[in-house]
Design a protein that fits this description.
Length: 383
């Protein structure tokens, strides 16, 4: 991990940098922090769906992974053009993945680090695994055919495993047991045998090992999007139309496949990959139209560019701040700082849902401050 002082990231390499992508990254990380710091009173769009189906919250993580896939292609292209070797890029990708994975373990363990029950899976761990495999794929072949082939394999193979392979001790999904039963499925079965006692939901984990297979598809869809956007034979309006069309196709295919393989974030089903990518493409298309075509950049883009400039830093800071506020208890009342703050301010608001929203927004604003300081000092922490 290194901190580098460079020029404004929205202005660096103005001929190749996609400001709309920077903005989407910032919006995504801000929304991720927002939904991660709600409570039981939060409005329904700020909660994850319990199982099958979706809410806006369920689209945040795949959008961040999608954006990372887009960014990777542009980053590798720039580094190769500057003469950096593929072996050097591979070494950096490996180092980045190891650091992300270790950061994920720190986030999971903080503040008490109970090593006997430490959760191994997590958001950053999924990033580490998927982005490393995606990096290898990009270094092996920078074209589209191999990526499309791997994407199809990931989605179809996962569907076959989840639908047509009997789960030991349970039977065939859809015949002996309900299809996508919460505990009687291959993802939960493998995770319970690999990391017993270390799973987020006890008997299962939303970032389980097997579901990295379709999650890789999310990153690949981002990579394919980048290949489309870097084409020199297409005009900016044509690229926008391509984004819009791809969003429609992915949303349609995701919904259709969902009739047979339900949209499910916790299992990262293949239909969910396509459906979530459709929303990611739609968000990118909107940002692309506003920024790259209409040139509406004054004022509103700045906060998102700042958030996106140190996105991983903002996320890790938020994940460490939350337990700092809520895990340590003090005084005769044995209350945490978070309990005192919430009870003194946000719990007094008559509408509990609105109070929860204001708390979440305040938390996002607090997390914005360190990345704002880093941005103004032109420090961008690179992993």
């Amino acid at each position: 991990m290194s901190a580098t002082a460079v020029t404004n990231p929205s202005a660096t390499g103005t001929k190749t940098r996609l400001v709309s992508l920077d903005v989407l990254r910032g919006i995504t990380i801000a929304f991720m922090i927002l939904v991660n710091n709600g409570n039981q009173y939060s409005y329904w769009p700020l909660h994850h769906i319990d199982w099958n189906g979706w809410t806006p919250t369920d689209l945040v993580f795949p959008t961040f992974l999608f954006v990372a896939g887009v960014s990777m292609v542009f980053s590798f292209e720039s580094r190769l053009r500057k003469g950096e070797s593929k072996s050097a890029i591979f070494s950096h990708a490996l180092r980045r993945s190891v650091i992300l994975f270790l950061l994920g373990l720190v986030v999971n363990g903080y503040p008490f680090f109970h090593l006997g029950t430490l959760r191994i899976y997590g958001v950053l761990q999924r990033f580490a695994v998927c982005l490393f495999i995606a990096a290898v794929l990009e270094l092996w072949d920078r074209g589209t055919k191999s990526k499309i082939a791997v994407l199809i394999f990931c989605l179809i193979a996962y569907w076959i495993i989840m639908r047509w392979v009997p789960v030991p001790g349970y039977g065939l999904p859809g015949r002996d047991i309900p299809f996508l039963d919460k505990d009687a499925n291959w993802v939960a079965y493998l995770d319970r045998h690999i990391f017993p006692g270390r799973l987020y939901e006890g008997t299962r984990d939303p970032e389980g090992l097997l579901s990295n297979l379709p999650a890789l598809g999310t990153a690949i869809l981002g990579m394919l999007t980048a290949i489309w956007l870097r084409r020199t034979d297409k005009t900016t309006p044509q690229k926008f139309f391509g984004l819009w069309s791809a969003a429609f196709v992915c949303l349609l295919l995701g919904k259709l496949w969902g009739f047979w393989f339900p949209i499910n974030k916790k299992l990262w089903t293949s239909s969910y990959v396509l459906f979530a990518a459709g929303w990611s493409l739609l968000g990118l298309a909107i940002c692309y139209w506003l920024i790259e075509i209409k040139k509406w950049t004054r004022g509103w883009t700045s906060p998102w560019i700042i958030f996106g400039s140190n996105a991983i830093t903002a996320y890790v800071f938020s994940e460490l701040l939350a337990p700092t506020l809520w895990a340590f208890h003090f005084g005769a009342a044995h209350k945490s700082i978070g309990q005192v703050i919430y009870a003194s301010i946000f719990a007094k608001i008559p509408d509990p849902a609105f109070g929860a929203l204001l708390y979440s927004l305040t938390f996002v604003a607090v997390c914005f401050l360190p990345v704002l300081v880093l941005y103004r000092k032109k420090i961008f922490i690179k992993i």
